[in-house]
Amino acid sequence: xxxLKFGGTSVxxxxxxxxxxxxxDPNEEQIxxxxxxxxxxxxxxxxxxxxxxxxxxxxxxxxxxLYQKYKDFVIELLPAADFQEMGNEVIDYxxxxxxxxxxxxxxxxxxxVVLAQGELLSTTLYHIYLKSIGIESVLLPxxxxxxxxxxxxxxxxxxxKHLTSLLEEHKDNKLFITQGYICRxxxxxxxxxxxxxxxxxASLLGAAILAEEVQIWTDIDGMHNNDPRIVKGTRPIARxxxxxxxxxxxxxxxxxxxxxVFPAQKYKIPVRLLNTMEPSAAGTLIxxxxxKGKIKSIAAKDGITAIRIQSSRMxxxxxxxRRVFEVFERYKTPIDMITxxxxxxxxxxxxxxxxPQIIEELESFGTVEVDTNHSIVCVVGDFGSEKHGFxxxxxxxxxxxxxxxxxYGGSNYNVSLLILSEYKTEALRSLxxxxxx
Length: 437
Hints:
ATP binds at residues 5-8, 218-219, 229. 38% of the residues lie in helices and 21% in strands. It is α/β, with parallel strands linked by helices. The radius of gyration is 24 Å and the shape is globular.
């Protein structure tokens, strides 16, 4: 069985939704994971924010506006009267639920339920569409088998048990539809996966049932060797290892969330990144293997803050770095890069919600300097210790740009450099010319 995930743009209009059958083969065993229709989640976030703020008037208006969009969506997707009636019953059910929330106390629990409505709508409407054209499918409620544990981590054994049972109940069927992103938490409440959303769902399902492969369908033909929005002449990468894909995803390649790689990697499930608009394109295949002796791609991550802690107490001291890292751990703030000298440590973060408290605690160790508006440029490829010449080519490509930090040797797959964000575009283009032209 294969897992096929389609993002919001792939189901963003009735026309696009109907064209999914150019890709989905009803005669093959497949679980199709759908995101919400593009724009829906943003609207639901807006609705939730109004309700959380107690602004019931604007909240109700936002609900009505989204409802009218779905009324138009159903008319176009389901022109036959009987199926259009079924579609209208679905959206009436979901939007009447949203409307009722104006009369209730609205908390973060209700917010999670509101955010789940987008995927519930898209999957149910697509299931009805397939029925309207005579194609058999089974709608599998993700809330019946997607669950997180007490640490908010996916419970894969739970998914394996309950999803396998549902598939066994429908063993004569081949095509299954389910929701991405949504799940239940350890208390049984409606929740969501946050990190990676529907991509994460697809990877978790692939791991849970040991699928043949996971396919992530988006609006671009795989991971490119640079950012196509900034650099001309980029090209898709045919093959990547899981580690290379995770590095690229973490450092700026928006096509895939880094968290989505790990379940497939652990259970050795191949992942393909493919283009809904160009189904015949080869895309990118992610497996444990990769081409050796090559630089694969360049990515950049913005919104980086650099922190330098300088202290004579570091000299010949043990435990100093542990105490520094414990500060970030207390405030649940991940660190991206780190470099050290005998008397100073520099590191970067991209979450600054607790920056004032972090700085206050770090000042007990020594002098603290903070620099904002930086970007991490990450070059991914085969940087194993036996390789030579690649790092010098990277530095040669940036010889005219001030570099704040360099991280090399942390893995065999990347060289990361911290620069001011104003130099990012020039850095990406210069590296591309140096490494790929």
